């Protein structure tokens, strides 16, 4: 989809999807705070006036980037696994294994945008940090609900704490994201995934 934005009476047409993809990569590589409007407009191939006209301010652009990223396979694999796998163990195993492959994929920046983009934000960016924290906590809640159902269905022992198990899985996933940022390979992250799965407290189906 293309959009036209005027500047000094001359229309400027650009591909909104391509511009959004360029902004996503820049935010993913550098984080929110370290990415300037000038760097964004250069990467997106548009002028500042076009950015503000099409996306609003930097914060609004970032929110659209995150929404688009969350729908992509780079982040959406978590929800897909929870929806498609018949057991909690298979869902968690799929999430961890796909995270290992995805986070270290050289086709895009390492790790997860939602986990890493708010690193080193200052007080002026507290709203962005809170926004990403809320997303992560929402995802944690979805994971906990799935594990609670697994305990109710007898897949997990009655003495298992679904909240603690959800936090454990989320901590492993977030740690894998950071390790990918530090250069860990997909094979190395896959080893971490398998070690984490070895701690699963119920039947491994």
Automatic annotation (TrEMBL):
- Tell me the organism: Goodfellowiella coeruleoviolacea
- Cited InterPro entries: Homeodomain-like_sf, HTH_TetR, Tet_transcr_reg_TetR-rel_C_sf, TetR_C
Q: Name one GO molecular function term.
A: DNA binding
Kindly provide the name given to this protein in its UniProt entry.
Transcriptional regulator, TetR family
What is the superkingdom listed in this entry's lineage? Bacteria
List the stretches of this chain annotated as a DNA-binding region: 36-55
Q: Which residues form the HTH tetR-type domain?
A: 13-73
Q: Which UniProt keywords apply?
A: DNA-binding, Transcription, Transcription regulation
């Amino acid at each position: 989809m293309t959009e036209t934005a005027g500047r000094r009476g001359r229309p400027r047409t650009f591909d909104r999807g391509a511009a959004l993809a360029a902004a996503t990569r820049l935010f993913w590589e550098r984080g929110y705070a370290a990415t300037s409007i000038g760097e964004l407009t250069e990467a997106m191939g548009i002028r500042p006036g076009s950015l503000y006209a099409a996306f609003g301010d930097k914060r609004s652009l970032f929110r659209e980037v995150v929404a688009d990223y969350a729908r992509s396979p780079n982040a959406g694999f978590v929800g897909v696994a929870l929806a498609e796998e018949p057991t909690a163990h298979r869902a968690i195993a799929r999430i961890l294994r796909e995270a290992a492959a995805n986070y270290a994929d050289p086709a895009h920046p390492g790790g997860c945008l939602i986990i890493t983009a708010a690193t080193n934000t200052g007080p002026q960016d507290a709203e962005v940090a809170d926004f990403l924290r809320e997303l992560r906590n929402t995802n944690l809640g979805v994971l906990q609900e799935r594990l609670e159902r697994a305990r109710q269905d007898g897949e997990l022992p009655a003495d298992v704490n679904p909240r603690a198990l959800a936090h454990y899985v989320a901590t492993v996933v977030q740690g894998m994201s950071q390790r990918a940022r530090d250069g860990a390979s997909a094979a190395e992250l896959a080893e971490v995934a398998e070690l984490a799965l070895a701690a699963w407290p119920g039947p491994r189906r």
